[in-house]
Amino acid sequence: MKFSVLTLFPKQVKDFLSESILGRAEEKGILSVNAIDIRDFSGNRYGKVDDTLFGGGTGMLMQCEPVYQAFSSLYDAKKEEKPHCIFMSPKGQVLTQKKARELSKYDHLVILCGHYEGIDQRVLDEIVDEDLSIGDYVLTGGEVAACVVIDCISRMIDGVLPNSEAYEEESHMQGYLEAPQYTKPNTWHDKTVPEVMLSGNHARIKEWKRLHGLYDTWKRRPDMMEKLDISSDDWKKLLQIEREKKEEENKGIPSAK
Ligand code: SAH
Predict the structure, then answer these.
(1) Angle between helix 143-154 and 20-27 (nearest 10)
(2) Does any ligand 1 atom lie closer than 6 A to the CB of residue 134?
(3) Residue 174's domain spans which residues?
(4) Domains in the chain: how many in total?
(5) pLDDT tens readout for residues 198-235
(6) Which atom of ligand 1 is nearest to the CA of 135?
(7) Which CATH number belongs to the domain containing residue 123 in this structure?
């Protein structure tokens, strides 16, 4: 899969994505991230790409033409279809795991980053297919947001993680959160790993993970819980987990149960 990021700060994007899992995936040729400097398309000696706002208001706005030229450099309009273009914007639909999965099906994604006050609407209307936000807050630029989107999509591309189970069971993938996880040693600060985890019984482990994932969703994200259809049998089990946790707390025994 190919990502082309249109930005005024290509180094910020490349530096972030060249490390760790994504860096290795790029080395292996599973994905490629191309960061294009919009300033290279300024058309003037100073690399100036922004100007003051019509109608007043503070700050500077990125102009149409450099953005348009940078985008047009990515494909041959006569022979190729226009690549899918996402504009990072606090006005966009907020990124979800479902959305990332949808986007992972594209061969080529163009991600446009704004800076300063943003970008002249006219070029957005012409090249952008969808706006995407990473949350209801405002950043200084779209670069960090673009890295979040690329990171999230990439781990669903075959070959980036060791196997698809690595992400299939994760938080948000099935509509609920992941259960707590443990590694060695078995006992740490008097806290023991739940006995079932050491049992080697895969069916029991699977059920434990499912129920504790649901339990965490119930306690941490009631908004997600409301969307799940929990059977009365499962509710009984969740209430039982709650009772057990309360008992542990009352005993004052530290436990990871
Ligand atoms: N004036 C704009 C904000 C500009 S912030 C407004 O009020 O909508 C500058 C740039 O940062 C934006 O163009 C966008 O590319 C990026 N950005 C800011 N917040 C973001 C968010 N929550 N998600 C994605 N991109 C964001």
Answers:
(1) 70
(2) yes
(3) 169-251
(4) 2
(5) 999 999 999 999 999 999 999 999 999 999 999 999 99
(6) 22
(7) 3.40.1280.10
